[in-house]
Amino acid sequence: MSGQMPAYILREWNNDGKLLVGGFIYFTQSGTTTPKTVYSDAALTIPLPNPVVLDAGGAADIFLGDGAYRVRITTAEGVQVRAPLDGVVGAGGTNFGGAGSNISGASLAVYNDLRTLTTVPDLVYVSGRLVEGDGGAGWFQLLPTTTITDDDGVILTSGSGAHTYKRVFDGFIDPLWYGVRYALALDQSIPLTQALAGSAVWNFPLLVARDIYLTQNVTVPAGSTMECLLDGFFVSSSAISMAFAAGSKFSSVGVAFGQTVAPTFAAGVAQEIRLSWFGGATDHDRWVKMAASTSQAYRAVADVSTDVTQDISVPTNLALDFAAGAKLTISGLANLSIGSLVYQGALPIITYTAAGNVGAVAIGAPHIFPEWFGAVGDGVADDSIPFHAAAQTGSVYLRNSYRTTDVRTYTALSIDGPKQPVMTDTWNSGSLIVGGALTASQLFASNVLLYTSVSGGINGLNFYAESCMLDQAAVGPGYVFATSIHVTMCRMLGFSPTTPSISKIDCLYGSLAASNARTTNLDVGINRAGMFPTYKVNIGTTLVPVFAPITSNDTSLVLISNPLSLGTTVEITVNDPDPSAQGSFYYKIAPVFLAKIVHLNGRFRVGGVSQTTVSMAGGTSAFCSWLELVPSPYYPGEWQVLFGQNF
Question: For the chain, what are the domain ranges?
């Protein structure tokens, strides 16, 4: 005798928890590999192909015929999802197991018809919860003696609770079973709470397929799991909260929380928190809701592009990442604070539509790259806005070549790049062409190439450079104008006096521009084995050489007989970079120029005695002393020359 069984499997899932889109379900006779027919209609008149192919939602309407089936499920690629099920029984009228079976059954309209049964069939099919077709349809199987109570969705009881029937299902719990009604502007918090409790009891996810309207706060209890499909979300006309308790689980593939629904997540509720989950009147609202959604440590993902005109603040407990193609555009003056950014890519993730939109920027990350803010980094395009946005953090890491053209001032700025030997003839990465005025009270540079262009330069109170190349020749002349300059293991190229007036120390490999004799500190160091550079100390703005040689092991005080005035230069030539070579010199100038004179001090010998200073005879005099040559710690076989404090 033929019979019917609707929707043996409504929806299937892969082992990774995702819908089994395009999967296959194979039906064979129980205990064999002989195909057995299933149908697409309850009357069993329209056979389905075998295997049955699941749709884009991982679902298919399947009706079983007489007798028992063996069911095997695979992915679209043919990978078996789980062990085959054998002995799955189809319908057969009152004889549900087919010929010879003693399984009894009944077909009823709604839940209450089952509750008022006077018989006790083994299987009962109901066509709806309150009315046929309202989403509550399903098969219910009689359970042995149990104390489980009627939960109005998965468990129904008859005989005043004496007989318990459990819904036959697999994979998920449908909120419609518990009376939730989609797309209806009436509060669904009570049936939703019941459905969530069912999820916790039966350890299956609650699958939200469409919009659910709420007017009351909802708590998602421990043990329950909620999954929102692309069109599944919660909406309200008033401000409500949805609190996910510790031990609950949540995931969504789209917007899950409408404009006025604010979720909060305990620790461990989701693998990550995604910006796309949060709806809002503006994109700014979405960021605010995500930032306020938890106080626990989570990975947060900006997986949709947004456009804001107000301040954005992401707390440190959210380790923010950006999905491929997602971007935050700032179209109005706004401050940006990201406590922890874990994005590792080099694509633009934050862009400003105008320079005036760049407010305060604070980002917690090991390095801040201009590319994150839209820099092209080819040395040709104007990267002024991206560089400025990155520099607002106080630290910029240069991986490519960047050009700026505007005038910017910072309190403190560190510019860094990939470490490489500075003595090479070429620079492979990490360069900045300063086409405007870059001003910082404290400017630190390491492992970068800094160009100053015709109209550009570096200004500040303190300028520190280590393992850098400073090049004015390529695009200059520019300038470095600072009160205090400290340069170590750097290569200087092409600097010359210009406006504002500068002084310099020239060596074989280039020159350093300072802020003329008014500098208060100056540290320099480079040299190479077998190459004996000539150093110049420029007291003013005009180079007027005065030669004063110091030869190997010369312990005498080399006097410069003629007094020097502002604008003269003392040139010292070292003929043998032997650490034992000693010597010094001093000079006198007019009192009016005495206040700010370069003073290079160090260790040297006068009259065979090692000293670190030279006592000057006379009242109005200043001196400049040679510092000992030391082996370079960076380049074996090479020498390093260090200059000390000026005054």
Answer: 24-167, 170-271, 398-526, 538-647
